[in-house]
Automatic annotation (TrEMBL):
InterPro entries: Diguanylate_Cyclase, GGDEF_dom, Nucleotide_cyclase, Rev_trsase/Diguanyl_cyclase
UniProtKB keywords: Membrane, Transmembrane, Transmembrane helix
Substrates-to-products reaction catalysed: 2 GTP = 3',3'-c-di-GMP + 2 diphosphate
Pfam families per record: GGDEF (PF00990)
Enzymatic class: transferase
Domain of life: Bacteria
Domain GGDEF intervals: 113-245
Lineage: Bacteria, Pseudomonadati, Pseudomonadota, Alphaproteobacteria, Hyphomicrobiales
Name of the protein in question: diguanylate cyclase
EC numbers: 2.7.7.65
Natural source organism: Prosthecodimorpha hirschii
Transmembrane residue ranges: 20-42, 48-71
Amino acid sequence: MRGMNTIFLVRTQREVWRGVVGITLVCVVAATSAVVLSVWMVTGSLRMALVFMPAAVLIPLAIAPPVSWFAMSIVRLLTQTIERVDAYVRLDTLTGVLTRAVLLDQVREALPRGGCFLMIDADHFKTINDTHGHTVGDEALKRIAEVLRRTAPVDALIGRLGGEEFGIFLPGRREAEAAATADALCRAMRDQGRAVAGHDLAITISLGGAEHQAGDTLEATMRRADIALYHAKRAGRDRIHIAAATETMPALRIRSNFAPA
């Protein structure tokens, strides 16, 4: 969307410049004709009329720069406003990742290429809120989102599904690649979630993943990932569970998060 806004700005600036140049030329012709004609009619001398031609040309040229600057300022202000509104609609205001609605829309667009959906949930998050307060809880959510952004592949779609739950779609990835990414996310969270906002929180996350199957809906894939997440929680948290690609209601293949680094 930011790219679209940039294209809008460039095209609009081009049109503004064309308009300014066109108006300036029209003004030059009109002013020159009016001055020359008026002086000629008053003095009856064409030579005298031509003496005033440079002044007639300079007036529109002097007006054009401030008009151009004002027009460009309006265009830039409009584009900045569009980008702010766009960011507010697209991004979760607390964590900076995609909102649930935008995430799912973008995942649906990417589904024809296949991929894997990961459901991520912060372990014992209620305890963090109850012990340290919601302000620290908000900082914990920001840290989780930051770790997800830093660790996930550059083409991953990352969003907040609600509360302390996040979703990541890995376009074109197979089950083994999703498992490797999930392992990396758990390790990174364990390393970078120890201290947050001056508090020893030791944040960990649990992940459930499922590879999208041709013919399935996004909702079906997310249900499988959610079941996987449930089993990860049940197995002790700070774990990942990846649903086998051939299973609809999977007896999940369990991967421990405590493998040696």
